[in-house]
Amino acid sequence: MSHCTVLITGGAGFIGSHLVRRFVRRYPDYKILNLDCLTYAGNLANLADIETAPNYRFIKGDVSDADFIGKLFKEQAIDAVIHLAAESHVDRSILGPMAFFETNIVGTGVLLQSARKAWEGQLENKRFYHVSTDEVYGSLGETGLFTEKTPYDPRSPYSASKASSDHIVRAYYHTYGMPVVITNCSNNYGSHQFPEKLLPLFIRNIKHKRPLPVYGDGNYTRDWLWVEDHARAIDVVFHRGVNGETYNIGGHNEWKNIDLIKMLCSIMDRKLDRAENASAQLITYVKDRPGHDKRYAIDASKIQRELGWKPSVTFEEGLEVTIDWYLKNEAWLENVTSGSYQRYYDEQYKERNAAKN
Ligand code: NAD
Ligand code: DAU
């Protein structure tokens, strides 16, 4: 795919910004269009280092605005879409699900329909890549892994909206022959993640000696993957994945929340020159997340076997780099956590603490 125009949606967010940077730097012949409406989670400061690159352009717009997206496809000769734009936080989907349905379901439908119209009769060398999550598969017991054949069983408004979007993408493949590919990835960690998600939130709270709100008994398991490894996996699937196929992406790296939090506390005690076990004293058990999925774990053998991708860093290495980034980038954290973030935080955790007491 030389000289192609790639529309990346949600490129100002956490994973999107890592992906946009990677594509802008690695593929100078590609024209990279970053379409993002800049919700609370989208931040152009994430891309300050590449914003003047000649092969990059930012476009502010909403994926669920059919007129706008239709016009964009008419004006730009878009060859491929990598679709990441989404409402992405499970707790927010519980507080207010409608935005998730609008962006994640309607927005995906609008993009597919616009691409279909623009690409009518010329599907060769086109690609619609949908970035999805392991949460569509529901919750695992103590054993087993999610494979590409695991039946869908989403249990939160967020995961249900992502599952819906996956189904719509597959429907366009079967019905219209659209050249689609889907990946379902486990929990990402790394720099530039909005501090509502576990790791950046806890790093920030430890730094400021604030309580660490552990949901339920903390015995929930997630499979953690470094965000740069996810971006590399997307690159590989974008270029070599087979149309109509799904690939699971994961870190082979399962952690119970409470064990991960204790490890994080101990690394940060060392980095901040605090006494041993000082930060663990901040752990506070709060009311559980409703419908909290017990365990996620990905079988990523298909992408490894068929496309040669596997994680490149150990969790220990990735976590050190990640913690250092948040400690060094105080200004980034303070910028994204003013105003509406504070209102969200107060609502989310006051109610949880009150219910627990
Ligand atoms: P994020 O919340 O950090 O970023 C989402 C981006 O989408 C933001 O820049 C936001 O402004 C933009 N956006 C939201 N609504 C939009 C709209 N209507 N129109 C245009 N732009 C809009 O999310 P993330 O964690 O980077 O996740 C990106 C994608 O990857 C999502 O589709 C998510 O479901 C998926 N995913 C995330 C993880 C994870 O661990 N974070 C794991 C697997 C899959
Ligand atoms: O699995 C992939 C998914 O990972 C992505 O699709 C989502 O976009 C992403 O947000 C993430 O979802 P999780 O719900 O797993 O991530 P979160 O960081 O919100 O929570 C991780 C675990 O930590 C989960 O078991 C809930 C728990 N938790 C979270 C927060 C924010 C706490 O115990 N306390 C907290 O304050």
Key words describing this protein structure:
binds nicotinamide-adenine-dinucleotide; 12 helices; 16% strand; 2 domains; UDP-galactose 4-epimerase, domain 1; 12 strands; 7-stranded parallel sheet; globular; binds 2'deoxy-thymidine-5'-diphospho-alpha-D-glucose; Rossmann fold; 3-stranded mixed sheet; alpha/beta; 357 residues
Could you explain how this protein is built, in words?
- With 357 residues, the chain is of the alpha/beta class.
- Helix content is 43%, strand content 16%.
- The protein has helices at 14-26, 66-75, 90-95, 98-118, 157-176, 198-207, 227-240, 257-271, 301-307, 315-328, 330-336, 340-356; strands spanning 5-9, 31-36, 56-60, 80-83, 127-133, 180-185, 187-189, 212-215, 221-226, 246-249, 254-256, 283-286.
- The chain has a 7-stranded parallel beta sheet, with helices on both faces.
- The protein is globular.
- It binds nicotinamide-adenine-dinucleotide (NAD) and 2'deoxy-thymidine-5'-diphospho-alpha-D-glucose.
- 2'deoxy-thymidine-5'-diphospho-alpha-D-glucose binds at residues 88-90, 133-135, 186-187, 197-198, 201, 213-215, 220, 222, 257, 289, 296.
